[in-house]
Amino acid sequence: MARSQVWINNQDFQGFGCSACNWVFKPSGALDDDSLDEMKRKYEAERDGEFAAHVCVNYPKATRPKTEL
After folding, report:
1. Distance of CA 62 to CAs 21, 22, 52, 59, 68, Å?
2. Per-residue confidence band for 63, with pLDDT thresholds at 50, 70 and 90
3. Is the pTM of this model over 0.90?
4. Which of 25, 23, 24, 19 is nearest to 2 (CA)?
5. Residues 6+ apart with CB under 8 A from 3
6. What is the dihedral of CA 26, 27, 29, 31, to 10 degrees?
7. Where are the domains of the chain?
8. What is the pLDDT of residue 64?
């Protein structure tokens, strides 16, 4: 299954993450006083670059505890 960027909206986090693991995008800092279009372009470039560079095995999904039948 190919991974993709997904929007996550829960109690603890709201933002972009990976569909295949627990990686989430955390912007590096405040946006500059550039135009809105330039700020958006920088945000998307940072997000897309970090998504492409992350390795899913470094962000494993939580596993459910096994239950006995």
Report:
1. 9, 8, 22, 9, 19
2. low
3. no
4. 19
5. 18, 19, 20, 21, 56
6. -150
7. 5-58
8. 58
pLDDT tens track for 21-50: 999 999 887 777 778 888 889 899 999 999
3-state secondary structure of 56: helix
pLDDT at 36: 87
Cβ atoms of 4 and 17 within 8 Å: the answer is: no
DSSP three-state, residue 18: strand
Amino acid in position 32: D
Residue 61, token pair as written in the block: 């999904």
**Sign of the alpha-carbon dihedral angle for 64, 8, 49, 28:** negative
